[in-house]
Every structure is written in structure tokens, then in C-alpha cells.
Write a structure and sequence with these properties.
Length: 143
Amino acid sequence: MPDDVLEARSRVAPRTGLTQMMLDWSVFMTIEHTDLVHVQILHLITALERGESPELGDISRFDDISSVSKEVVTRFYEHAKEVEDLPNRLALTAPAKVHHPIFGSLTSRGFYALLAMHLWIHVPQIEDQIKLHFTRPQPGHKT
């Protein structure tokens, strides 16, 4: 996929889970957001499994994404490997919970499930962003 497609901001249709700010992101910005959230969840899961009581904090901090470059894809894949390997490293059975402002109190297993739910929101967003690039009239071309 050409970088210009992935860097271009596209106004996608609203869908459950997307804030107004997210509707105007580029593919790279969406991947950056997803990666930041997943890294935080990985930290929360690890802390919960160690018996700690971490705080999630204000989740809106993950919505303030500035323009990013293709390096975000490499970071995302590195962290995705950590997510994939997590059940091999941790039991995901700790009883401790962290409060999430939307989903309530979650254990490490609940946060692990949230990783997948988060992708269910943003993968279709990325698909829409790419489709918009190829379906909208390009400058200098007649439709």
C-alpha cells in the first residue's frame, strides 16, 4: 500500500467506539492509537498478574494522535507478537481488577479480551479509510 494512502486523513462514517476526533484520522494515526492502547493494556495485564493494583488513568489520552509515519507499523507488529504470546507467558488468572470507564472492572483475562474488542473497532475503520482513498475523486481527474 502506498504511503500516501496510509498518511492521508479520511473522514469515515461514525460507528460505535469511534470518537469524533477519530473519524478524521489517517491509517497511520489509527494504527498509532491502537498500538498505544495495546501497549498500555499489556502493562496492565502484566501488573495485574504480578498482584499489583495499577491505575488505567484517563483513556482519552490515547485519542490525541498527531501525524505519524510508517514506522508505527513496525512497532505495532512487534507489540502484536507480545499480545499473541501473552497466554504462553502469563496464566491470566489473577483475581485483581482495574476499573475501565466504559467496560467496568476487568481482570487480566478481561483486558486480554479487550485487546481483540479494540481491534474489532479499528480494523473496520482502517478498511473504510483505505476504501475512501480509492473511491473519492482524485485531484485533476474527471469522474
